[in-house]
Amino acid sequence: MATGLPSQTQVIELLDAEFTRAGYEIDDVVIDARARPPRITVIADGDTALDLDTAAALSRSAAALLDEAAPAAGAYHLEVSSPGVDRPLTAAKHFRRARGRKAEVTLSDHSVLTGRVGATHADGFDLVVKTGKADWSVRRIPLAQVQQAIVQIEFAAPARRELELAGVSDPAGNVDTEEAGA
């Protein structure tokens, strides 16, 4: 069925430069031509969280670019979104962006660790794990040993020492730029 909608590849090629200028990269594009109106979802990720204002601005510029490139597409619904907390951490950049967040990590030996993501390295990342009632240690995890990793939703504020070991300067998750090398 010809919809006039651009393909996933065309959307990425068309929007990539605009998203890059804003500091984000396109993780995925999902096109649902069966929806009424058809839906184009652009999932973007970056080193800073995709807030509502930025998503709206990117959506406006993306719509203008899409309308110009594919006027035959007609009416469609465009959504610009972040990957969400349930997206698995699979690449070094995902762990870098999750710094300061709590994650559950399943290793290739099937052991499961829960801890706070710390600094990333060329071949892995640090995970701050609880070793006692109020003690933590930093464990270096090679990416090659990660079978699965998912950010965990937290309802309580983390301990200050735990954040310090993860290289985060405040409970809002802001990275200590001195330690991060920025």
Automatic annotation (TrEMBL):
Principal location: cytoplasm
Subcellular location(s) of the protein: Cytoplasm
Superkingdom as given in the UniProt entry: Bacteria
Transmembrane segments: none
The keyword Cytoplasm appears for this protein: yes
GO biological processes: ribosomal small subunit assembly; translation
Family: Belongs to the RimP family.
Protein function: Required for maturation of 30S ribosomal subunits.
Annotated PANTHER family: RIBOSOME MATURATION FACTOR RIMP
Protein name as it appears in the record: Ribosome maturation factor RimP
Organism, as annotated: Mycolicibacillus koreensis
